[in-house]
Specification:
The complex is a heterodimer. Chain A is mainly beta. Chain A has strands at about 5, 10-15, 20-25, 30-35, 45-50, 55-60, 60-65, 70-75, 85-90, 100, 105-110. In chain A, the strands form two sheets. In chain A, strands 2, 4, 5, 9, 10 and 11 form a six-stranded mixed β-sheet that branches. In chain B, strands 2, 4, 5, 6, 9, 10 and 11 form a seven-stranded mixed β-sheet that branches. In chain B, a hairpin with an 8-residue loop joins strand 9 (about 85-95) and strand 10. Classes of the chains: A mainly beta, B mainly beta. Chains A and B meet through strand 4, strand 5 and strand 9 of A and strand 5, strand 9 and strand 10 of B.
Chain lengths: ~110, ~110
């Protein structure tokens, strides 16, 4: 079964607005990562947050992690048309021998 | 040039044919992976290799085999392709196992008729 579940499955907003995507997972983790995938292309790593961290920033990206709720959120501020893509969370657990990806959130930024 | 290169990028084949997807990397990473992505779904791990002599099955290895020819090369084979293996296949590398960043190729889109 999938470890990470993204919510919503699809999100459409106007350029300039903020976009928030959520990821929930089921078991304890060492880290949670967010990736972006432009249509039909390879995944690109955005940010990694470790289980002992609560928040990380990278440019217009802000990621939070709540291990008590087993959830994470990705906030993209001041969205741009180029942010249109699918966003995936992936969880890593020591000893689990795999990085488990969620089903992704498809984000559309309307000009 | 891309750090992780997959060939071919697109392939259409017929049921029963043998197909090989190739991956090469210039990142110098020991760890390499093959993932499969179906429309609207996340990625499923097919096989992974932590070094040239180490090959491990992932979640969905049935119907697939791999070969790690060198540190930089990891190929995926479908011995007898079937239509439900139609998918987008990704190769990825990392230098820190399951707790670090993965670097992905651009993908190989396979259609089995």
């Amino acid at each position: 079964s999938q470890q990470g579940e993204e919510d919503p499955q699809a999100l459409s907003i106007q350029e300039g607005e903020n976009a928030t995507m959520n990821c929930s997972y089921k078991t304890s983790i060492n880290n949670l990562q967010w990736y972006r995938q432009n249509s039909g292309r390879g995944l690109v790593h955005l940010i990694l947050i470790r289980s002992n961290e609560r928040e990380k920033h990278s440019g217009r990206l802000r990621v939070t992690l709540d291990t008590s709720k087993k959830s994470s959120s990705l906030l993209i501020t001041a969205s741009r048309a180029a942010d249109t893509a699918s966003y995936f969370c992936a969880t890593g657990r020591q000893g689990a021998q795999k990085l488990v990806f969620g089903q992704g959130t498809r984000l559309t930024i309307n000009p | 040039d891309a750090d992780v290169t997959q060939t071919p990028r697109n392939r259409i084949t017929k049921t029963g044919k043998r197909i090989m997807l190739e991956c090469s990397q210039t990142k110098g990473h020991d760890r390499m992976y093959w993932y499969r992505q179906d429309p609207g779904l996340g990625l499923q791990l097919i096989y992974y290799s932590f070094d040239v002599k180490d090959i491990n099955k992932g979640e969905i290895s049935d119907g697939y085999s791999v070969s790690r020819q060198a540190q930089a090369k990891f190929s995926l084979s479908l011995e007898s392709a079937i239509p439900n293996q139609t998918a987008l296949y990704f190769c990825a590398t990392s230098d820190s196992g399951w707790t670090g960043e993965l670097f992905f190729g651009e993908g190989s889109r396979l259609t089995v008729l």
